[in-house]
Amino acid sequence: MKALLLENIHPEGIRLLTERGIEVETVKGALDEDELASRMSGVQLLGIRSKTQVTDRVLEAAPDLLAVGAFCIGTNQIDLAVAAERGVAVFNAPFSNTRSVVELVLAEIISLARHLTDKNAAMHAGVWDKSAKGAHEVRGRTLGIVGYGNIGSQLSVVAEALGMKVYFYDVADKLALGNAQRCDSMDELLAVAETVSLHVDGRAGNAGLFGAEQFAKMRPRSLFLNLCRGIVVDHEALREALLSGHVAGAALDVFETEPKTTGDPFVSTLQNIPNVILTPHVGGSTEEAQSDIGRFVALKLGDYATGGATTMSVNLPQVIAAVEPGRSRILHVHRNVPGVLARVNTVLGDAGVNIEGQTLSTRGELGYVITDTVGPVRADLAERLRELPETVRLRVLSCD
After folding, report:
1. Which one is catalytic: 86, 115, 219, 281?
2. pLDDT tens across 244-259, in order?
3. Residue 327 bears catalytic tag
4. Which of 18, 123, 165, 265 is the 20 to 30 Å CA partner of 130?
5. CATH for the 1-96+287-316 domain, from 3.40.50.720, 3.10.180.10, 3.30.2320.80, 2.60.40.650
6. How much is the pTM?
């Protein structure tokens, strides 16, 4: 079995896959659609981060592909529906780098509130500017969080521990943690927040979420941060808000167009504006977070490749099934229509196969059943299962 890992996946992930007997090929940066499609022949496991796009065309060029691992939080760079239609499982790391992102957000809020970027630039230029003008503590100030998921909610807790008053807005019904207060609309949040931090996902509906209208509704001299997705913010509108002084400072870690590899040139309309922090998509880039992500996603890929478990898959039904030595395992992804399991079991029964264990789960239009049997599964039996009209993908494993 072969794995192709792109975008500098942490060595911990490589180690864990190699220990499973999987051949691992690594690529330093991202690949574009043509490059990736040309390299997918013979690849069973694909590991990416946020810059690589796994499109319909890439999946079509990957007949051997079993699973994609997104070694990051988001999966919007993967065509999840097409992957599911082909029986390709997708896994991500929804929790592993939340702390790293939260710490960077708070560090940037403090830096912006104290104008540390300007002070630093002045000192490097030989200017001693010892003044408290425009510098503020974050204690007692109001933080507005747009998007109260894994990162937004943890930011809420840690910011409150620093003495900040927290408001949040989310389109989903989320439980408020600590003393955080829910807002019924983004406008309500913008009216009270002195600092606004975005933590929404990259779904298409969030493109252009924050533009000139929203900046105009922010309180004068507020701070603005975006460490979620580059597509959600109109950078030209932010530039105007900064130059007019309506927004006092900003920090951005994500951009709609980002260089593919380290060292490539970067250009932004937000460069060279005072009290603006620009970082190269490093919110989750700490040794601790990348090690945890490498371990988490590699284990999910390995468990699926060698045992068929789809625990925490984002696009296939989730099945947990412990591997027992001496059994054969039939992994059957199928259309979720009535009678499929009965037809599978009829095929097995007609062949005289005794079922030792069976686990079924469904998710939308797909079903996934793991069937354990004693002894090897004959090639003709596997072919009969593949020929069932509802079959999306079939694999047979020998559990040694």
Report:
1. 281
2. 999 999 999 999 999 8
3. no
4. 165
5. 3.40.50.720
6. 0.83
